[in-house]
Design goal:
Length: 190
């Protein structure tokens, strides 16, 4: 995890991991037969940390308010991705390890996507959404957080006038803007 944080996914090398662990260059191969196996382990740990961030945020989510839970989920997703860009890069890209061969990452990712979908389905069932097509809302929600995270990681936010110090607030603001766009307006009081 430290190698990834310092130099990105390309910096993960079995020999360097062995050097940092103060073991012989061949020792890691008893646990990780290849760089791919090492990258799978890094991805598993990154995914575990990602999920822990989201679960911690959901503890404070307003009960009985699916859109409030979605807000907590979305903001925690973006906060973690922006604070851990190289770790997010590993778990969100298929360039660094085989997602299909990493049951832990694939399962955990599917559970987080399912959580988003269920939360928005609850909002739909509770009459909180103005949109009529739940699947479109679910896909748009995933695209929003993933897209903003990628824009941050790829350095595109400054082109839009967003400096680094404003990125976390902008992330919260776009989640709020999305929610405002999909939410059913409150009923007028008579």
């Amino acid at each position: 995890m430290q190698l990834v944080g310092e130099g990105g996914p390309e910096a993960v090398r079995v020999r360097e991991a062995a050097r940092r662990a103060a073991v012989s260059p061949g020792a890691p191969f008893r646990h990780f037969p290849s760089r791919d196996a090492l990258m799978n382990a890094v991805a598993d740990e990154a995914q575990r940390c990602f999920r822990a961030e989201i679960e911690a945020a959901l503890v404070d989510a307003p009960p009985g308010d699916p859109l409030g839970r979605f807000r907590c989920h979305g903001i925690s997703y973006l906060r973690w991705a922006m604070k851990n860009p190289t770790h997010f890069e590993i778990i969100s890209s298929r360039r660094f390890f085989d997602h299909d061969r990493s049951a832990g990452v694939s399962s955990d990712n599917a559970q987080l996507i399912g959580l988003t979908e269920r939360t928005l389905a609850e909002a739909f069932s509770a009459g909180q959404l103005a949109a009529h097509d739940l699947k479109q809302v679910q896909i748009a929600a995933c695209a929003l957080v993933y897209g903003f995270a990628r824009m941050h990681i790829d350095g595109h936010l400054p082109r839009g006038g967003v400096i680094e110090a404003e990125a976390e607030q902008m992330a919260a603001d776009i989640v709020d803007l999305f929610i405002a766009g999909i939410a059913r307006p409150p009923a007028a009081k008579v």
